[in-house]
Amino acid sequence: MSNIALHTQLIKTEAKRLGFLSCGISRAEFLEEEAPRLEKWLHQNMNGQMSYMENHFDKRLDPTKLVPDSKSVISLLLNYFPSETQKDSEAPKISKYAYGHDYHHVIKSKLKQLQEFISEQIGEVHGRAFVDSAPVLDKAWAARSGLGWIGKNSNLLTQKVGSYYFIAELIIDLDLDYDTPVTDHCGTCTACIDACPTQAIVDPYVVDGSKCISYFTIELKEEIPADYKGKFDNWMFGCDVCQDVCPWNRFSKPHSEPLFNPNPELLEMTKKDWEEITQDVFSKIFQKSAVKRTKFSGLNRNIQFLK
């Protein structure tokens, strides 16, 4: 077995041991196909007030500008599908990914361990870990690495697994064996387009971020436009509609990461509990959660908007 094949096998085996759902690898090079798509999306202001999406355009498309001399992009998936959801069907809803501890911290820790393993087993390898907070097109790299295809709802979809997982990367200066993309299995299905409460999926494979419930409830810092009143399908933080209706998610299986388990109180809270939530309760329940990002004032704004 060649060194390249051996190193690739070592990395994939360790990724599995660390609890990642899957690991795919692609060559670190300019994303030629994605460049015009991203440019058009930004030009049409589909990023809304997410002005950070306009920054570092070159770095978003070329990993060698993020990590000098990089050779490989290692893409990793981590399952977050919960075994149970909120009990009160009338309570305002939180996106499943935010039930447990903030995924940034959970995944960063695993990536650090993987990086240390590579250095110990292979030698001096330079690189950087990325979890959704740097200018990296996660889904494009995961698709290139054969971990799934980008569906009509613009999420990465995987046969037998669905889409309830986080995507992260290690970009390193080591040559590895590269995986090949898989084919698109959306077919003629339009379930996500038909179900989107705010018609944010403006074309198959194109989501207008400025119309998405996740954008309104997390990214938008000012008042939510009044003409969206009654269109949020009771979501107070994020939205899972386009994933919930996707036929591939009937294959989703509960995760096995204890840190993603929700605070039991979160699942038990009733509609009334949420409407009367205090700063103290918010701080207690979301102490280590990604929901902290919206702050108490932001979550309260969203809850009041649903009334």
Task: From the structure above, extract its key features.
307 residues; alpha+beta; NADH Oxidase; two-stranded parallel ribbon; globular
Explain what you see.
The chain has 2 domains: 3-83 and 101-172, NADH Oxidase (3-Layer(aba) Sandwich); 191-306, no CATH class. 35% of the residues lie in helices and 13% in strands. It is built from 13 helices and 10 strands. It has helices at residues 3-17, 34-43, 57-61, 63-66, 103-122, 138-144, 191-195, 213-219, 241-244, 264-268, 271-275, 279-285, 295-306, and strands at 22-27, 72-79, 93-94, 127-130, 149-150, 156-157, 165-172, 201-203, 206-207, 235-237. Strands 1-2-7-4 form a 4-stranded antiparallel beta sheet, sandwiched between helices. The protein has a two-stranded parallel sheet with strand order 3-10. Helix 1 runs antiparallel to helix 5 (103-122). It is globular, with a radius of gyration of 20 Å. The mean pLDDT is 96. It catalyses: epoxyqueuosine(34) in tRNA + AH2 = queuosine(34) in tRNA + A + H2O.
Indicate the topology:
Elements: H1 3-17, E1 22-27, H2 34-43, H3 57-61, H4 63-66, E2 72-79, E3 93-94, H5 103-122, E4 127-130, H6 138-144, E5 149-150, E6 156-157, E7 165-172, H7 191-195, E8 201-203, E9 206-207, H8 213-219, E10 235-237, H9 241-244, H10 264-268, H11 271-275, H12 279-285, H13 295-306
What overall form do the CA principal axes indicate?
globular
In the residues, how many domains can be counted? 2
Strand content: 5-15%
Main β-sheet, spatial strand arrangement: 1-2-7-4
**First CA to last CA: what distance?**
63 Å
Task: Name the helicity range.
Answer: 25-40%
Radius of gyration: 20 Å
Q: Can you write the helix and strand succession as a string? A: HEHHHEEHEHEEEHEEHEHHHHH
So, CATH architecture of the largest domain?
A: 3-Layer(aba) Sandwich
Indicate the structural class: alpha+beta
The largest β sheet comes out as: 4 strands, antiparallel
Mean pLDDT: 96
Q: What is the number of helices? A: 13
Reported by name, the CATH topology of the largest domain is NADH Oxidase
The total of beta strands comes to 10
Q: Which parts are unreliable, with pLDDT below 50 for 5 consecutive residues or more? A: none
Quick one: CATH class of the largest domain? Answer: Alpha Beta
